[in-house]
Amino acid sequence: MSKQILNAGHTKARLLEAAEALFVEHGFEAMSLRQITTLAGTNLAAVNYHFGGKEALMQALLHSRLDRLNQERLRLLAACERRYGSDGMDASAVLSALFVPALRMSRASEDGSGFVRLLGRVYSDPSPFVRNYLREHYQPIFGRFFEAFARALPQVSRNELGMRLHLCLKALSGLLAGENLDELIASLCMGEKVSDALMLARLISLISPTLTAPFGDREQIAQVERVVLLADDAAAAADAQALGAGKPPGVLPPWAVETMEM
């Protein structure tokens, strides 16, 4: 009996590992049960037996990997608020409460880079199933951190803060999903031997302006407008050069179309 249980547990673990690897690499919609079972060295019946299907398998994976992480995040945020006061945390401190548990867990994992890439994929995957799962299971956590950011950035409206957080976390998730963790850390360390705190501080300094920087002032807007006005001329010149070289141009201006028709 114990041998059968051990075998069953081993099969279940292999399915979870295979699902995680394929999810990180391809996303939820692109991976198939056949790919999962082939990588796990098992069959479709094993998925139905242990999980009941692809979505249930994915739920088990997210539960096993994210629940502990988010519990640590909530506890760390609460500890910081007790220490510094709920209004004593700036945006960098709140971001730290999000990132430090993830870094700690990646350090404790045998495959730290895989764990970080999983987080990046989870938060950037466009699948309705993944998005709905996160909303249903982790909305209280998202809400808790949103309120912390709102207190840290009282000058930003809630609508604008939601937009900024979405862009900030989306950009970071895309980076983590496609980047080797060692290469990312090496880039942040710039050849120096730095502590985890300094490395994270550098990462936060790069992304926190997404939350804190004001929208474009008049001079910045004017600069962008001047570039926009020059864009048509630049495109026309590029098309003219392509015509001269005998290459297919891009979107031709009217004068170029008329010239070709003559």
Automatic annotation (TrEMBL):
PROSITE patterns referenced in this protein's UniProt entry, alphabetically: HTH_TETR_2 (PS50977)
GO molecular function: DNA-binding transcription factor activity; transcription cis-regulatory region binding
Keywords annotated in UniProt: DNA-binding, Transcription, Transcription regulation
Cited InterPro entries: Homeodomain-like_sf, HTH-type_TetR-like_transc_reg, HTH_TetR, PsrA_TetR_C, Tet_transcr_reg_TetR-rel_C_sf
Domain of life: Bacteria
Coiled-coil residues: none
PANTHER family xrefs: HTH-TYPE TRANSCRIPTIONAL REGULATOR BETI, HTH-TYPE TRANSCRIPTIONAL REGULATOR RUTR
Protein name: Transcriptional regulator, TetR family
Native source species: Lysobacter enzymogenes
Top-level taxonomy: Bacteria, Pseudomonadati, Pseudomonadota, Gammaproteobacteria, Lysobacterales
